[in-house]
Amino acid sequence: MNKDEIKKWIKDNLVMQDKARTITGQSVSAFNQSVATGGIVPFVEFGYARKTRLYLREDLEEYAKNKRSRK
User: Fold this and answer.
1) What is the mean pLDDT of residues 21-30?
2) By the 8 A CB rule, do 40 and 20 touch?
3) Which of 35, 51, 56, 58 could in theory staple to 43 by disulfide, Cβ–Cβ 3.0 to 4.6 A?
4) What is the span of the domain harbouring residue 65?
């Protein structure tokens, strides 16, 4: 993959928390709880004190589908 292909893949497949919450339909606290309990796992995480986490769209869509079917 060249740089442009990598950028496109990142834009198409990785999201930050705001978009991730939209995909899963969760509030901030519910989303944070899902991350803390391992229900949602960041695809990649940067930083120490102030972490930046990116989530794989496919994982979030699967989580949302399973979350709805449990209700």
Assistant:
1) 97
2) yes
3) 56
4) 3-70
- Give residue 34's identity as a one-letter amino acid code: S
Q: What is the pLDDT of residues 32-64, one digit of tens each?
A: 999 999 999 999 999 998 999 999 999 999 999
H-type alpha helices, the chain: 3-13, 17-24, 28-36, 57-70
Neighbouring C-alpha atoms within 13 Å toward the C-beta of 28: 1
Q: Are 1 and 9 in contact (CB under 8 A)?
A: yes
Quick one: 18 exposed, middle or buried, by C-beta within 10 A (0-12, 13-18, 19+)? exposed
Question: Which CATH number is 19's domain given?
Answer: 1.10.1660
Give backbone dihedrals phi and psi of 18, rounded to 5 degrees, phi first.
Answer: -60, -50
